[in-house]
Amino acid sequence: MSVQINNLTKVYGDRKALNEISFSAESGQVTGFLGPNGAGKTTTMKILSCFIQQDDGEAEVCGFNTKKHQADVKKSIGYLPEHNPLYKDMYVKEYLRFVAGMYRLPQKNQRVNEMIELTGLGWEQNKKIGALSKGYRQRVGLAQALIHDPKVLILDEPTTGLDPNQLSDIRDLIIQLGKEKTVIFSTHIMQEVEAVCDNVVIINKGEIVANGSLKTIKEKATGSGIQITVGFQENFPLDEKWNAEGILSIQKSDVINHWEIQTEEDIDLRPDLYRFAVDNNLTLLELSRKKYEVEDVFRLLTNEN
């Protein structure tokens, strides 16, 4: 495992930011790290990047302990924090040369040019960082995180502030990087999770509430990927009177005379429900089919209500 976390705990005052969390991230995959604001994502990333230390538990990056081998850990990771700290009075190319020099990279000019091309900074390379849009500053931060060719890439909200075209470019870059590196990718944009991530870890109030592939997490959280909602004008006991192959559950909705039906993912029972309503002289007010998305699962797992 490139990243391994075991029983990690961090306490601020009387509040546990992390409560014995454990998960791993493998090379050649993009791991989505999700959670509401204040859930513990940034704290975990800061521990992995040796900015802060945990109070208990162990964290390893490429086999190096984050407490005992900090220099080796820092060489192994590239970190783009949520609030991207850049020297705004420096020019883009100048700043990347400075970062390359900090890492004592051989042929640093060549590496800087490679990063400029990789992150799409060609038109902006001779501008001051302070004059760039937020999206291009994110690109500079990503170039800085990648310049020393780390094995592990930790990205905290890397697509914040990007327009749709920029977002697509960065998404493709993250997918490409994920084929050869370990990428931990934090975001609140659920569409990005489905487009980019191989596995997902969801944290809430300092505890891991889900860990695995998107398909597995959806199945565990919802029981199925499909929900059919049917509403009648009449008060009709659908759960007692109707059954069909592929139904996992039938439950009353909060809306009067409405029912929510969980089915197997590849089954659409709406035609059968329509015929059933006609045969029983029922007036249909609603008949809809919804496939659960990552956003729905996220709400189910992290919303107190």
Give a structural overview.
The protein is α/β, with parallel strands linked by helices and 305 residues long. The chain has two domains: 3-212, P-loop containing nucleotide triphosphate hydrolases (Rossmann fold, 3-Layer(aba) Sandwich); 224-293, Alpha-Beta Plaits, CATH 3.30.70. 34% of the residues lie in helices and 29% in strands. It contains eleven helices and 14 strands. It has helices at residues 41-48, 70-76, 92-102, 108-118, 134-146, 164-178, 190-196, 214-222, 238-241, 270-279, 294-302; strands at 3-12, 15-25, 29-34, 56-61, 64-65, 77-80, 152-156, 182-186, 199-204, 207-212, 226-232, 247-252, 258-263, 284-291. The model has no long low-confidence stretch (mean pLDDT 90).
